[in-house]
Amino acid sequence: MKYCSVCGQTVSWKMPESDTHERWICDSCGHIHYQNPIPVVGCVPERDGKILLCKRAIEPRYGKWTVPAGFMELGESTVDGAARETREEACAEVEVGHLFAVVDVIDAGQVHFFYTAKLISDFSPGAESLECRMFAEDEIPWDEIAFHSGRYALEKYFEDRGQNNVTHVHELRRARS
Question: Is 75 left (phi over 0), alpha (psi -120 to 50) or beta?
Fold first, then answer.
């Protein structure tokens, strides 16, 4: 960040008074620019023991498989966002169940929320998907899953079959050398 989004003047990286983190602060108007994690919401749509996955038509991870998920929009709940992402990526309707996995993707500044879901409609690739397909657990293309958080969600889903009403929490960080 170089300039204040309020007044357009330069900003400096420093600790605000009575704060615990350095932040971008406007040198002119004093506005503090908070940068907080971005929520990502998704679900694991299931029907007849199979899971709906989408092959990405966008970067990052073009051509890799993922559960329907994406950035939350202002004015929607996490549940509404998970259902919307499924409509956008798989042209499908779901009944969203319970939250079962939360993944802190610290280096990306994101928190991923995954819900169980029942697939209640047909599906087809949306604008962000090359292909959508149903997979049994032993058919999941594990080596082609786009994101570690999605893989974690799938592993936990199959671990408790979405039935335990348990929320698994995981933290992802890049390995430091």
Answer: left
Tell me what the pLDDT averaged over the chain comes to: 95
Tell whether the model's pLDDT for residue 93 goes beyond 60.
yes
Q: Are 132 and 52 in contact (CB under 8 A)?
A: yes
Q: Write out the residue limits of the CATH 2.20.70.10 domain(s) in the chain.
A: 1-35
Number of helices (H), then strands (E), belonging to the chain: the values are 2, 11
pTM over 0.70? The answer is yes
Are the beta carbons of 80 and 113 closer than 8 angstroms?
no
57-76: pLDDT as tens digits: 999 999 999 999 999 999 99
C-beta atoms surrounding 51 within 10 Å: 22
| 1-35 CATH | 2.20.70.10
Both tokens assigned to 176: 């430091």
How many residues belong to the chain?
177
Q: What CATH number was assigned to the domain covering residues 38-172?
A: 3.90.79.10
Residue 98's DSSP bridge partners are: none
Q: Where in the chain are all domains bearing CATH 3.90.79.10?
A: 38-172
